[in-house]
Amino acid sequence: MTPDDIRSTVIYIQAIAADSRATDIDAQAIAADSQTIATDAKTTGIYLQTIGAYSQTIAIYSQTMPANIGEIRGYARAIAARSRAIAGNSEFPSKSE
């Protein structure tokens, strides 16, 4: 072997070592990407569960709202009736006085 052959062999071995390190780095990056994808999938699942919970809450509010509106109207009618009763009471001056 000539000195040039030896130098070429050393350069070749160094190149193989560099490629091996690059391959290891790529493998680590792929593993990290897989973990990130798994985390993103879990996060997406949590978001979907939260949206589902909000949808159920909105459905409950939609069902109870008519009853609440009816109750408010009932209170308004009761207050109006009391107001008329109070206005008609002889101890209070009437609107015409």
Query: What is the helix tally?
Result: 1
> Helix/strand/pairing class, anyone?
mainly alpha
Distance between the termini: 129 Å
User: In this structure, how is the largest beta sheet organized?
Assistant: none
Helical percent range?
over 70%
The succession of helices and strands, N to C, reads H
Count of DSSP strands = 0
Low-confidence stretches: none
The coarse silhouette is: rod-shaped
Whole-number mean pLDDT: 86
Radius of gyration (Å)? 40 Å
Estimate what percentage of residues fall within beta strands.
under 5%
Oligomer category: single chain
What does this structure look like?
This protein has 97 residues and is mainly α. It has one helix at residues 3-88. It has a domain at 1-63. It is 89% helix and 0% strand. It contains one helix and no strands. The mean pLDDT is 86.
Describe the structure in brief.
The chain has 97 residues and is mainly α. The chain is 89% helix and 0% strand.
Descriptive labels:
97 residues; mainly alpha; 1 helix; 0% strand; rod-shaped
Blueprint (SSEs and pairs):
Blueprint: H1 3-88
